[in-house]
Every structure is written in C-alpha cells, then in structure tokens.
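step=predict obj=Dienelactone hydrolase family protein n=189
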Amino acid sequence: MNIVLFHSTFGLRPAVRAAADRLRAAGHEVWTPDLFEGRTFETVEEGMAFNDGIGKDELLKRAVLAAAPYSERGLVYAGFSLGASIAQTLALGDAKARGLLLLHGTSDIAPNAAVDELPVQLHVAEPDPFETDDWLSAWYLQMGRAGADVEVYRYAGAGHLYTDPDLPDYDEEAAEATWRVALGFLESL
C-alpha cells in the first residue's frame, strides 16, 4: 500500500518517522511530508501558534503538493492529530484514495463531500479534549452520509497523542493496540 503520513502540530518528530518505519516493515511504501519545513515543537501551544502563522490554506497547499506525485497510485492518507485532519481533507477530495487512517484527530467535513465506500479507521483517546464525544458522534454520522465506511476505536484513559513515546500522553498499551488494529486495516485494503 502507498501511504502518505502527516505529522501533528509538534512537527515531523521521531515518533512520526518511527511510525513510518513500522509501516514500511509491514511492506508499505510511506512518505512523511514535512509541512513545517524542519520546525518541531515541544508544546501543543508552540505548534499551534506556528500552525496559525502558516494558515490552514497554506498547510493544505503544502500537503496537496507533497501528496500529488503519488496520488495516481491510489494513496492511503494517514496522519496524527493535525495531520489526521489534513489527511481527511485530502482523502475526501481524492477520487483515487484507497483509505484513510486517522490517529488522534478528525476534521470538518464539507457539506458536499462524497466518497464511494472509502475505508476509514479512527483511533482516538477516550476522553480526548480535542475530539469530544459530541463532536465524534456528529463526525461519524457526517462521514457515513458522505459515503465512508468508518470504524472508530477509543482508548479509555489514554492521552491525546498516546502513540508518541516522547510525549507525556504516551500510553504503551493503547499505542500497541492501535498499531495492531491499524496494520490489520491496511492489510485489508
């Protein structure tokens, strides 16, 4: 499978590279675009401030340009938190998308979004301050109306970015469970 994996608001950190290596070890071809052009951050607030300075339109432009050389192959779009929201936006706009793997995040869905049974898998903490229960319920229904085939996995007690071993949110048990399920999902595509 060809996968483009987008980083979180912390930037292209070692955990993203390690995730890409894990996916490669499972036989996938993976690209990890650096939407922050080498900048990484120690706190969510620093990353969000930088992200706000770039602007959503510029970030999406960078993501589209990064994915474009590979999109003809039929990509699985994947991402962590902010990167998941970017992956979702790109996948819903790419008729050749093969799947969408969301780790720790979702995004708004355009009212006219339509896909043909796009396989989508979401892994998110429970509770998650950035992905509230009400938001996730509405998101799930909207994705279904858009035509996506959605699976949601919740991890009780885990922190928001629980798959990143270098962050306080890290939860080894939840992270390993996520990777087991996600790798199975990718194999099924």
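step=describe
The first helix runs from residue 14 to 25.
step=end
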